[in-house]
Sequence to fold (502 residues):
Amino acid sequence: MKRVVLIMTGLIVLLFTSACGNMSPFDNDGQIPSDHMDPSEEDNDFSGHGMGMTGHDHDMPLQSSTGENELNIPPMLESDKETEDEVYYTIDAQQGQTEIFDGIQTKTLGYNSSFLGPVVKLKKDQTAHIKLKNSLEEETTFHWHGLIIDGEADGGPHTVIEPGEEKEITFNVQQDRATLWFHPHPEGKTAKQVFGGLAGLLYIEDGLKDTYEYGENDFPIIIQDRTFNDQKQLDYEAVKDPDGTMGETLLINGTLNPRLTVDKEKVRLRLLNGSNMRNYTIKLSNNQSFKQIASDGGLLNESVELKEIQLTPSERAEIVVDFSKFETEENDVELVMDDGNDETVLLPFQINEKDNNGDNKMEPRENPVTINDQVMNKQVSKEITLKGMGRHVTINGKKFDKDRIDLTQKQGETEVWEVYNEPDMMGGMIHPFHIHGTQFKVISINGEKPPKNLQGYKDTLSLDPGDKAKIAVKFKEKGTYMYHCHILEHEDNGMMGQIKVE
Ligand code: C2O
Ligand code: CU
Ligand code: CU
Fold:
């Protein structure tokens, strides 16, 4: 699964052009309006990668977890009030200090805590009232990634909450059970705020029976990579990379060197790639298979047996690992990242003697995800092209403009979008394509039926260079929504457009 393609000729041309100063070949293609370039920033994307000149080939190694610390399990957010039909929550974006490294306080950001956030639980058919508070020193927004919600409440760059201010949003929960998440989305500052620690999980529940128990055999796994400076602080400006910031330090749920203790039973892991740009190919160190039961938008029609799974930024997968199959003595099962040549330990498991004899289950989804012939045969009505790297990224040849609506679509109508990751002269890179306010279905990737685990609801689709995918998109609510690359620095650099749904 080598996904980064490098075209040597392009590389050579680039070596020459970038050797002559700032003559980037991308400046001359007439696609990037120069008034959208930030003149205050140096235009040296290529030299930023040093003499490696591998361009898109980010290869900052990630340190393996030593398993020293038991994984932090974020608390479930307590409601301010809850009835059968309604729930009230308060979510406060704040800054604080967190002991990530023994005896050292790191300045971090979090929701209702100093770092990351609680799990916010919503039930299908409930009306949710969420009070949003900004206790930061800068503007922020609260975006509900994967949630079907009207454009006003979706928390895109238009709905800024100033420092010290608050605002309440109200919406109906109308989707089936799923693992979603929330994070800030202020224009040009998303990457920095997420990097600082603003990210939390949003669990949607519905009537389906689920015998897994949170914190017992159902665990959130928020995977992030960070670089800390010598004082063990997060200095985003010092480490940011216009092509996506990677870190050498792994944090899961904010825990450094995490390990997870489990019983001999089926355990559900709700994986979220919460990193700014790093992609993870995740597997078990003993090469055993596991089952994927849900994708971004909820349960798959049926579980899919896998030996590895790739997650690009913002993608989620719920997987079930059956620890009853593993020997206790074989206490070295780990979740690892396979980066082609090497394996990085993400999460070592400690398997308890205790055999729960339990057979944890989830009821299968009620309404299977299908694409009917009428949609299958629809013409493509929207074409999206993702292109470029670093600060030169574009979407349909343009950069984000808050005051420009790029596309329109009718509420409740399904359209077929064709999304293309156009390779550039250096080959290109993976762009995870995300749409707000909807869960879409993948019709095809390069003309072929998608693999089983991409046949459920998705809100982010990873596209390799050259990939062209058709997706069926329907918005149930109205408003203005963003669609963008979920490499957060690409989003901040303008690889984002707006669709108005009426
Ligand atoms: Cu995770 Cu614009 O979103
Ligand atoms: Cu989103
Ligand atoms: Cu991108």
User: Anything to note?
Assistant: The helical segments are 8-19, 190-196, 236-239, 373-376, 488-492. The pocket of copper (II) ion (ligand 3) is lined by residues 393, 431, 485, 487, 490, 495 (CB under 6 Å). Confidence is low (pLDDT under 50) at residues 1-55. The longest helix spans residues 8-19.
